[in-house]
Recover the amino acids of this structure.
């Protein structure tokens, strides 16, 4: 699932590809950010399923953060995705 998220949903510019399960583009961001956080992608301490390191995780986080900030965060769904991303920032 992580591989799919990073190769099929996440885009290198920090956005997420909308798919049939998303009602809005904002949903794609929320679901993408939530999944990466729940999987422990950004926080090694949250990786209950692997000891694998993801050295690119900080760059992915930075790209998503920049893309969300560039929207102006006036949309509630994008603001929610941003707040979730910031709450899960690596310590």
């Amino acid at each position: 699932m992580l591989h799919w998220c990073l190769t099929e949903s996440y885009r290198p510019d920090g956005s997420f590809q909308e798919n049939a399960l998303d009602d809005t583009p904002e949903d794609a961001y929320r679901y993408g950010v939530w999944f990466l956080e729940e999987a422990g992608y950004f926080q090694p301490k949250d990786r209950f399923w692997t000891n694998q390191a993801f050295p690119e995780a900080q760059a992915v986080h930075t790209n998503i953060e920049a893309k969300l900030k560039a929207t102006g965060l006036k949309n509630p769904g994008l603001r929610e995705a941003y707040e979730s991303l910031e709450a899960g920032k690596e310590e």
Q: What stands out?
A: The chain has a mean pLDDT of 92. Helices lie at 2-9, 25-38, 57-70, 76-87.
